[in-house]
Amino acid sequence: MIKFFRKIRQNLMLENRTGKYFKYAIGEIILVVIGILIAIQLNDLNENRKEHKKELSFIKKLQEDINFDIQHLTKQDSILAGYLSNQEKIPELLLKATSVKDIVNIDLVMHKSWNNIEINRKTYNEMLNTSGIYIIKNKQLLIHLNEHYALIEKYQQFMREITEDGREYMKNPDLNTFRFLKKYFGNPEFDRNRIDTSWIGNYNSPTYLALYRYYNHVIVGVNGNKRKYIKEILTSSNALANEIKQELTRRNYNN
């Protein structure tokens, strides 16, 4: 094709038809420019298709992550509900405790959920690390997505602080006797008569008061707050999952 146009140009020059030559040259330039513009447009269309596919892939993976979180957090909420149901009796049991066995039995009911609120943010992190967050065209969805993970980060930080406070409560020197009792109660060589148990049933003793504060923190601060935070995250997760489902339906994503 290039040789064909070159031959035409040469013939025009040999025939000294300069006017027609320049017209032809201009026409050839226009054709080249049109060709370049078409190539650019085709390339843009191809890039847009790739970006569109990548965007929908991110949204679909976000949907899978959030649905997984909903299932996982619902189970965690159920476990915490069981913990709290059993622990409602602890203040009364502590008031009635008169023996080492009573105290040990109370502690067996004190299940603690020290681990933080766990969620799957793999896709969201990938979007942040690869600038994929900027290809989400639905800006309202993007706002809600960022708000959702910001809410989770806030509650995870709260749980870290609450958990650390709980561990500090447990380190209280007034609980040394209790910790020793708890650790060695099942040991055949343990002689309970050799440690001070006078604090049991003595509501004014430092050990009793420290134990009460620790139990109260676990029940209300750790387990209670964790369940409260999980419920709020579940509310946000369900709303976001529904919004994502609507977006995928609107975009006719069937994969």
Roughly how much helix do the residues carry, as a percent range?
over 70%
**What is the global morphology?**
rod-shaped
Number of helices: 8
> How many beta-strand runs?
0
Spans of at least 5 consecutive residues with low confidence: 1-5
Helix and strand element order: HHHHHHHH
Short description:
The chain is mainly α.
Polypeptide structure, described:
The protein is mostly helical and 255 residues long. The protein contains eight helices and no strands. It has helices at residues 2-14, 18-87, 90-96, 100-109, 122-129, 139-170, 176-184, 206-250. It starts with a helix and ends in a 5-residue tail after the last helix.
Notable characteristics:
single chain, 255 residues, mainly alpha, 8 helices, 76% helix, rod-shaped, disordered N terminus
List the helices and strands and how they pair.
Elements: H1 2-14, H2 18-87, H3 90-96, H4 100-109, H5 122-129, H6 139-170, H7 176-184, H8 206-250
Helix pairs in contact: 1-2, 2-5, 2-8, 3-4, 6-8
